[in-house]
Amino acid sequence: MSNKTELKENLKKEKARLHEDILSLKKSVSDYKVGRQDEWKEFKNKANDEVKKIKHSLDELTARYKNKDYIITN
Questions:
Q1: The Cα angle at residue 66 between residues 62 and 69, in degrees rounded to 5
Q2: What is the DSSP string of the chain?
């Protein structure tokens, strides 16, 4: 095998190896994004639940004050 042919074969192998590395990295990034999205969704759901609880408490307090005709003075 000539040097030129050997170099071409080595280049093909290196390109194939790099292509596989790129695919592997893309998969890792994709998996990472999916994992983070799940974490974000969980965080967002917990935050929304907390906001709902706070709003509910605020609504209850408002209703209590309205029902009892409290007058707030300084």
A1: 135
A2: --HHHHHHHHHHHHHHHHHHHHHHHHHHHHHHHHHHHHHHHHHHHHHHHHHHHHHHHHHHHHHHHHHHT-----
pLDDT digits (tens, 9 = 90+) for 9-19: 889 999 999 98
Tokens at 52, concatenated: 């709902």
pLDDT digits (tens, 9 = 90+) for 19-57: 899 989 888 888 888 888 888 888 889 998 999 988 888
The pTM assigned to this predicted structure is: 0.49
Residue type, 41: K
Pairwise CA distance, residues 6 & 9, whole Å: 5
